[in-house]
Write a structure and sequence with these properties.
The structure is a homodimer. The first copy, chain A, is an alpha/beta fold. The first copy, chain A, has 13 helices and 15 strands. The first copy, chain A, is 33% helix and 23% strand. β11 of chain A pairs antiparallel with β11 of chain B.
């Protein structure tokens, strides 16, 4: 018997309990020991839940119960979740989490504790919801030197952009629709300003390239300034606007550049056809070439599916998994986004020509505006110098 | 030190040696022991290869060398490869293979030997080349009951279909081009008649649903009868023709229906946008929903990447992996494709109406022909009854 304690009985936590109960036989066929939920920790009670009798309010019961093997942390944030995760690991329990903020900001520290105590700290559900991505990177692609990871990492923003592209909704209307459908929070800042995607690309970059990349090292731009004019101009060039998280390794010194920003993506790219709340992550390795992982990047059961798979892994390997962690971070881990060259899309508040750029034409273009695609790949300061003194309404990279 | 013997120094085998040598440091960071190629078994010599001094011609040297931990079988076929695999497992060595024919036909037997000898038999490279798919199914999706696996499993046929769709080449010309580019063999039967896709869907169905599904249980239709008229009619309906391998679990009795056939796929489906030699596999689970894995389904280094990842796994876990195998097959494993309902596309040698079907119109349609999409989902015998007595030139399912 593997006893699990779930911290936080919200959407994901209750989904974890549900998946363990519903697919019990399936799970038992695949691990030697049955998995059972022993405790659910929450500040609330859930009198009508089938797990009502497991609800407790005091973490020290879990911490001090030697029968608890695996702690599932689905509280979120980096405050109490950090404290409980530290204490659970120090008590010799493996911890499984869906908490991207905690992994992105304190991953290295928590992995070090796990290593010292010879237990697992597993976090598949923190990126891409249920999409298998972190374990495939650390196992199936383990023979590769990776060079780039690029993904549509946030379903809320991808839903909004899809509705702007497909239905011609304005950003504001698409956001309202997303909120009405439960795809966006009432305070949507973490999604639409790119912070959620930032945390996820930090985790992908840290695992894929081997050293902690932290949110403050990742320039992050959201989607709030994208207009329907931009959508139309992109369409006229055979492209779609997507919010991408990218992490690029520089061969010469192994430093990594990670950033989050809207990009124009060619309709021919598999990433352009990822619609609605779906996520997709493309990984490039020296042997494998380009592989892509696609699925629902959030949601109760998909995310719970990833958590439970990690619980099963923790149940099988009562030990620290070497290939599941990364080394300490530092200023020498990253290089500047200033060094990344791209072709650029620019929408300007005048219609004078841009040297070395192709004019775009869209049906609904506003008078006195113009939009351009540069022919050459330029650094951010080169493109800014090119546009110096002119009113720049939008400036986005093209994904090559 | 983990010593590896490579059986068969062809495209994949030499790629495996190359990846192990090139990414040695990367690999050593991820497994505790360095991995080294000790022997290469082939009937030929390779005097100019960096591995020339490892080439041997007698399998018993490998079989009897206690220092060999992992045997990589990249011979192909189910004759000598079967004999060597059996003997290697019986000698207590883990075996890693890219040989889809062997896994699809003798997988269960070989897994049983591996279990008895407490070693691994790993075969990630047998499906989807380098795309991580089998390990994610057996680990990351392990908390799910799967209901369907559908994939573009053969790069050669997908290349041919892509060239017919994109460049308007006839099947014959597209095949010749594929052969000229090295994407199709001089004898292309195994690809274009669907046998390669059949073996892969057998492996996916066996692993995903838990019992051996064998090629003779899988009705298989290739792409040789697809014409440009079909491509045009499909386009007029907003669809593309793709060769799909499908495995569908029936909830009521857990039986599986697996088959390979051309399908019309909506342009909106991620599968429709998988082009050229790329492969993609979509998996549906009760918790995860729909996830898709995409990448190069063949090729020297991508396939070698998957083999080496399995070697690293075998090196770490010197034991039989329970979740890596399936149970014995039998007639009670499968149910008939006759029970699978679909909408159907039919191209007919006359232009009389088809009751309950929508007429398609394509610019280059031949006189005296017509093409139809049924509105209702029908079984194969229902659609055949509907078309009884008429000349049926093409009859393909629509993927829903």
């Amino acid at each position: 018997m593997v006893n699990v304690a779930i911290l936080g009985f919200g959407t994901v936590g209750s989904g974890v309990a549900e998946v363990i109960a519903k697919n019990n036989q399936q799970i038992a066929r695949r691990v030697s020991n049955p998995i059972e939920v022993k405790y659910v920790l929450d500040v609330r009670d859930f009198p009508s839940s089938p797990f009502a009798d497991k609800v407790i309010h005091d973490f020290s019961i879990i911490e001090n119960d030697p029968e608890v093997d695996v702690v599932v942390e689905t509280i979120g944030g980096a405050k109490i979740a950090l404290d409980f995760t530290r204490r659970a690991l120090l008590a010799g329990k493996s911890v499984v989490t869906s908490n991207k903020e905690l992994v992105a900001t304190h991953g290295y520290e928590l992995m070090q504790i796990a290593k010292e105590k010879n237990v697992s700290y597993l976090y598949e559900a923190s990126v891409g919801g249920g999409i298998p991505i972190l374990k495939p990177i650390r196992t199936c692609l383990a023979a590769n030197e990776l060079s780039e990871i690029t993904g549509i990492l946030n379903g809320t923003t991808n839903y909004i952009l899809t509705r702007m592209i497909r239905a011609g909704l304005s950003f504001e209307d698409a956001l309202k629709e997303a909120q009405a459908n439960g795809y966006a929070e009432q305070n949507p800042a973490a999604d639409i300003e790119g912070h959620d995607a930032c945390r996820k690309i930090c985790i992908l970059a840290s695992l894929g390239f081997g050293r902690q990349v932290s949110p403050e090292q990742v320039p992050t731009e959201g989607i709030t300034s994208i207009t329907l004019a931009d959508v139309d101009y992109a369409r006229s060039a055979g492209m779609k606007i997507k919010l991408l998280g990218r992490a690029i390794r520089r061969e010469s010194d192994n430093k990594v550049c990670a950033f989050v920003a809207p990009h124009l993506v060619s309709d021919e790219s598999p990433l352009a056809n990822v619609e609605g709340v779906f996520n997709a992550i493309s990984v490039v390795g020296d042997a494998i070439g380009d592989v892509m992982f696609y699925g629902q990047g959030a949601g109760k059961l998909p995310t719970a599916s990833a958590v439970v798979a990690d619980v099963m892994d923790a149940a099988k390997h009562h030990c620290y998994l070497k290939n599941n962690s990364w080394e300490a971070g530092g200023d020498d881990v990253v290089y500047s986004v200033e060094e990344i060259r791209s072709r650029w899309y620019a929408r300007l508040g005048d219609d004078a020509a841009v040297p070395g750029a192709k004019a775009l034409h869209a049906a609904g273009a506003a008078k006195g505006e113009s939009a351009w695609l540069t022919e050459e790949k330029l650094t951010p300061s080169e493109v800014k110098a090119l546009l110096d003194g002119r009113e720049v309404k939008s400036l986005y990279r093209v994904l090559e």
